[in-house]
Specification:
Structural class: alpha+beta
Radius of gyration: 12 Å
Helix content: 25-40%
Strand order of the largest sheet: 4-1-3-2-5
Strand content: 35-45%
Distance between the termini: 29 Å
Order of helices and strands: EHEEHEE
Length: 91
């Protein structure tokens, strides 16, 4: 079953390769969507793909890369749209 998840990571998540970490894992898991830094210091991402793979990526984002400190991960489920072909870092 394909799903869509929107996540926002708070804490020390910018300047620690969080976006590259997410991109690498998303491509490995076959997830489509995007990840980007927000002006308030958080990192926002949208994941679409098979439920098990999306959940694995969400779980990866709970900790992030070694230098990150994720204090909170806000997760919102949505309806799968299939609008993305790959996973990218958005600017």
């Amino acid at each position: 079953m394909k799903v869509r998840m929107h996540v926002v990571a708070q804490g020390r998540v910018q300047g620690v390769f969080f976006r590259q970490f997410t991109l690498s894992r998303a491509l490995r898991l076959g997830i489509s969507g995007w990840v980007r830094n927000l002006p308030d210091g958080t990192v926002e991402a949208l994941f679409e793909g098979e439920e098990e793979a999306v959940q694995a990526l969400v779980d990866c984002c709970r900790n992030g890369p070694p230098a990150a400190r994720v204090e909170e991960l806000n997760i919102r489920a949505g309806s799968y749209t299939g609008e993305y072909d790959t996973f990218t870092i958005a600017y």
